[in-house]
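1st attempt posting a full record on here, be nice pls
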Amino acid sequence: MQYNPFRNIYFFPNFKTGHVIQWTVDPLLKEPLPYVFTLEASGTPDFKVIEYSIVGGDVYTITDNTNFKQSLASDLFYRVKLTTRAPSVYYSRTVSFGAGVNSRRKYRLASEITRKELLLSRKFTGIQGWVLKRKAFGAVAMDSVDEISGVPIVDNTSNFGTEFEGGYYDPLAIMFSIEEYQQTRKQSEDGNGVIEQDLYKIRMAGFPVLDTFDVLVDDTGGRCFVIKDQQQDFFPGTDITVSQTLQTQLVAITDPIYQIVIPR
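the predicted structure (as tokens):
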């Protein structure tokens, strides 16, 4: 069986600003850079005819803001192509609205729920913020890991404590709301005092899907929250994430991640 580095692919319907496709890749993918991701759209699941493609580059999400995607008169299928410098070419599994009026109606409803989730954050409970999506695959930047153990050097500011070049993707603007706050105190394992942890439960819309070690940044106060756990809420009958509940911890101000330039 041929190796395929794609692990997950997510589809977020939005009939106003454009449908969004997001994906995750096997962390063990170590082929030579650069990586180029391209979104391909077709009217059939076998992709014999590609209607159009959108080149995204080294990203983890692409938005289809073409006029073609607005029509529900015909089926539309998406897949993501990865091209590496090797050169190697890989394809994700296919995602689509599915056949039939009932299936399309579910996607319409999921899109409306997502819109209302965003409206709730913007109008009432939310705060402006940014997602720092942690890079989880690719060629290892050897100057950012310990030569003996292979563990990332935490205080390396060029890669911000990760093992990959740049550390994180470009900041992505979002809205989120803080649902709960808790401060815990416990004795350090080395017996050198008490460790305080500021824990926050955060709610946000389904896009982008976040994973552990991704970071949220509060645009107002500049606070950084690292994700410790994540729960997704799906729309029934689909694999669409409409909201997320995140268990996060406030990042210490001494962490190099605070040196990432955030738009204001």
